[in-house]
Amino acid sequence: MLKWIESTGKSEEAAIEAALQKLGMDRDEVSVEVLERAKSGFLGIGSCPAKVKVTYEAPDEPETPAPVEEVPAAPVAEPVKEEKPAPVVEAEAPAAAPAQGEKAEQIDAFLTGLLSHMGAAAKPVIKMDENGTYQVELVGQDLGGLIGRRGETLDAIQQLTGYAVNHGQSKRVRIHVDAEGYRAKREESLIRLAHKVAGKVVKYRRNVTLEPMNAYERHVIHTALQDTPDVTTYSIGTEPNRRTVVAYSRGEHR
Question: Which CATH number belongs to the domain containing residue 199 in this structure?
């Protein structure tokens, strides 16, 4: 079931981070709506904190683990500090330690079974980064089918793995799944798109609504443009068709 909490902070990012810490979740597991933007006021007078609404998928504890068909309805998506799994795997893999222990074994067993069931010739390589996040790289040949359109299949695999390992546990572990460095490439593409669209918004002074994206991808757009003059961003719609709007702010201070 979907639940939500409201959180405040000195900035939108601080409010989001406070909510994520309270929930013990990553940025890609929630959907964020900015209710009030932070205002600095004049000499500290009239200032007010940012306020956000964070929506997340909470399993119904009395029930047995949800069947596969229910899981795709959960918001997908990535982590504020740990939300860049691909760069960690690609750039820091040599320094990351191979993951060991019960959780690593559970992740390996679940993914091995899932990949076999999908008929995929791939195997999971599991490491743990300095933040305690399990970084899983699917290794094999021709993994495009595991990635899917705009990473949708990869997101579903990540969501299923997290649900299987964390279900019924009081302490959640963070799991990021990648294949062929897709997430880093996708993030770079989104950042280029964000700046290109922002240029058009400022030039023509017209808002642009982007294609539907998951929570993590929307966050990449928000972060990429958070310091861009004369531009602001916000999200509209409901999952899975929630979209980011890049808007002309008419010179307003953000």
Answer: 3.30.1370.50
CA angle 237, 241, 179 (to 5 degrees): 135
Spell out the residues 6+ positions from residue 89 whose beta carbon is closer than 8 angstroms to its own. 96, 127, 135, 137, 176, 178, 181
Q: What is the mean pLDDT of each run of 10 residues along the chain (254 residues)?
A: 82 84 77 78 68 74 44 43 45 59 92 92 91 91 87 90 89 91 92 96 94 88 92 88 89 50
Burial (CB count within 10 angstroms: exposed 0-12, middle 13-18, buried 19+), residue 204: exposed
Instruction: Give the closest residue to 68 by CA, choosing from 137, 118, 128, 15.
Output: 118
Q: What pTM does this model have?
A: 0.55
Domain interval for residue 210 = 185-248
